[in-house]
Amino acid sequence: MFAPVYLDHNATTPLDDRVLDAMLPFLRERCGNASSRHEYGRAARDAIERARYLVADAAGAHATEVIFTSGGSEANNLFLKGVAASIPVGTLLMGATEHPCVVQPGKQLQALGWRVCRLPVDVHGALDTGAGLRLVEAERPGIVSVMLANNETGVINPIKAVMLGARQQGAWVHTDAVQAFGKLPLNFRELGVHGMTLSAHKIYGPIGAGALVLDKRVDLQPLIAGGGQERELRSGTENVAAIVGFGRACELLSDELAQRVAHMQALHSLLEHGVMQLGAELFCVGATRLPNTSFLAFRGLEGETLVGKLDRAGFAVASGAACSSATPLPSASLLAMGVAPELARCAVRVSVGYKTSVAEVERFLSVLKETVQDLRQLTAVAV
Ligand SMILES: Cc1ncc(COP(=O)(O)O)c(C=O)c1O
Question: How confident is the model over 5-50, as pLDDT tens digits?
């Protein structure tokens, strides 16, 4: 099979073989329902509780604070809607560059009478702490949610001061740490939040598992009611194999984070140096960013077109456009930081992983060079 070079790790990561090995017995002979009171059930329960411990350990939390979900989207929805259902209708403050699985629940809450305000980012795409604190003071929000790292730009938000200010005002505070997890050391307690979202498939675990790490003082209404699994906060027979895989991915992460980060950082530098030489503009270089994410543009070349050409040439990267409609919309994160829509339409995201090699990045740079030259020639002819 034709296997393009994979440079889209912020979308999802390949399953680690060691994770698959841990999962396979639970997809084959170890078939128990974790609520069953026999040997199969007990084995499934033990495996889930061990995974819970491993997830907590990697996230700087206590095992009893981990609620397993189907992924990051569900965990974000659970915190936002679950908390909103437990407190009086009020104001929800969220970051200006949140993922749709925070923005959309916000819209649903708006329809129920909540006021939703966005916390601005600065020109580099990072949370503006001063403006954020002023908004917290003025709005006295019930809930605040700000992502730790942005999926498109890779910007790491300095969330601590705003979260502390909001807590002091009595808000329940949450961070979507889906993109930060696996790319920087993460400590739930040090971040000073009540809730934190994680997803397994961004850390070489399976798609379909995630967690909400939750301070036990938070009163939360479940989104899914039923058999009372996960401390009655998320009913449904547990996806044992996926949870085991999530736990194993966390265990590997705890052991290998420093090496992975150093490797990705080296590739990131190589890549960014190379694309700058080709005349690309790099977004958010003035902010602290993830060690694997580059968001760039070649002025005048549509991101979608470049992504398509690179795909045909054997490289999988992403455009910074939301393509849920016929006309791709420019990246909302770029627009929020004041980038002109014409330039935002040119954005391309390249996200490396811990298995990406130097040779792959070098090949990418050489194919990118040819592709950009070809497209520039075509544009020149068209004009
Ligand atoms: C920042 C962020 N939050 C949440 C999610 C959703 O996670 P999941 O795919 O596990 O639902 C993603 C996935 O792209 C993401 O990048």
Answer: 999 999 999 999 999 999 999 999 999 999 999 999 999 999 999 9
Query: What DSSP line would sit under 220-272, residue for residue?
Result: ---SS-SS-TTTTTS-S---HHHHHHHHHHHHHHHHHHHHHHHHHHHHHHHHH
Q: What SS3 state is found at 18?
A: helix
Tell me the pTM: 0.97
Angle CA 146–189–195, to nearest 5: 40
Give the C-alpha separation, 320 to 331, whole Å. 5
- DSSP 3-state assignment of 115? strand
Give residue 36 CA to ligand 1 midpoint distance, Å.
Answer: 32
pLDDT at residue 77 is higher than 80: yes
Instruction: Report the pLDDT value the prediction gives residue 378, as an integer from 0 to 100.
Output: 84
Residue 52 CA to ligand 1 centre (angstroms): 20
pLDDT by residue (tens digit) across 195-208?
A: 999 999 999 999 99
Q: Who's near 347: CB < 8 A, 6+ residues apart?
A: 152, 283, 295, 296, 297, 303, 319, 320, 321, 330, 331, 334
pLDDT in the model for residue 328: 74
Q: Is the CB of residue 199 below 6 angstroms from any atom belonging to ligand 1? A: yes
Q: Is 210 in the pocket of ligand 1 (CB under 6 A)?
A: yes
Cβ–Cβ under 8 Å, residues 356 and 7: yes
Handedness of CA 186, 94, 224, 172 (dihedral sign): positive
The rounded Å distance from CA 73 to ligand 1 centre is 6
At a CB cut-off of 8 Å and minimum separation 6, what does 154 contact?
Answer: 10, 179, 284, 289, 290, 292, 293, 294, 295, 351
Tokens of 130: 């001063």
Distance CA 25, CA 73 (A): 27
